[in-house]
Input
Amino acid sequence: MKRLFIIVPILLCLCSCKGGDIHPKLTEISFTAELTYYNETYVLEAEVDKNATLSATIKEPETLKNLNLTVNSKGITAEYLGLKYNANEATLPFSKTVWDAYLPLYHIITSGAVADKSGVIEGQTENLKYSLTVSPTGLPQELNLKNKRLSVRFYNTEIKEE
Output
């Protein structure tokens, strides 16, 4: 009986005393992202490789459907119907929205930031203050950039097997 009294507190401590930090899993994943910027909503099918390069295909709105974007720390490349070009605000205004959503993710990946026990990572990169919520397993759930009125919700997130 004495052993039971010793074992129960140890088990409770092991289960509840688990570290509070959650390490985000932001590379080698695929997901559906819903970007909301002011009153506009964009839906992308995307993946992030081990080098933090984001590859995305726009599914909505219809006017941008099947536009492919490749985003890395150097910028954005857009491809549509075989035409490929470096995107910027002048050539594709939407690219600034994607860039602003990518920068916090890249910042978290390269800085090694971790979420607190509630799954939230807050930070700033360039002029972007962000808040990223991750699941208990570290997969992204929601990104908010309040000063830009931009939010991203992540759905169907899966770890890619290589």
User: Anything to note?
Assistant: The radius of gyration is 19 Å. Residues 94-111 form the longest helix (18 residues). The longest strand covers residues 150-159. Confidence is low (pLDDT under 50) at residues 1-18.
